[in-house]
Description:
The chain has helices at residues 2-16, 24-34, 64-72, 91-104. By secondary structure, the protein is mostly helical. The chain has a single domain (2-104), classed as Cytochrome Bc1 Complex, Chain D, domain 2 (Orthogonal Bundle), CATH 1.10.760. The termini are far apart. The structure holds heme C.
Amino acid sequence: MRAILLSSLFLTLLASEAYAxxxxxxGQRIAQRNCAVxxxxxxxxxxxxxxxxxxxxxxxxxxxxxLEEALAEGIMVGHEAPxxxxxEFQPNQIADLMAYLRSIxxxxxxxxxxxxxxxxxxxx
Length: 124
Ligand code: HEC
């Protein structure tokens, strides 16, 4: 198992040059097929699984490069839910997925400076 992971990482490193330019369009299809059942994968909209972060916010949590590495190693960062499938992607699929994810990231909203209240209102 470990050898398989290591060799797939090695192949990823070999291939990363060739596939450095992923296709965001193909990546979107990968996300649609594999991730959209739980995650919001577009620039707008809520995740179907409310615990799953919207993909456009992932870069606010950690550098996307970290995610790329994790995908290449066959590890899905943070997915500890028992119903969570383990994804194994080919290097070119990872490049595509990353290209798509990079294309949809939004910056974190700046913290409101002049709001003394810390409790957000839940009632409209
Ligand atoms: C069965 C539902 C489900 C599917 C399918 C799914 N996810 Fe998730 N994902 C979650 C949930 C729930 C969380 C938040 C809780 C957690 O981290 O386990 C999450 C969290 C994440 C995180 C953030 C982890 C962190 O450390 O903050 C990333 C990145 C992620 N998913 C990527 C993906 C990608 C890429 C796919 C498709 C290839 C995918 N997920 C498919 C349910 C899912």
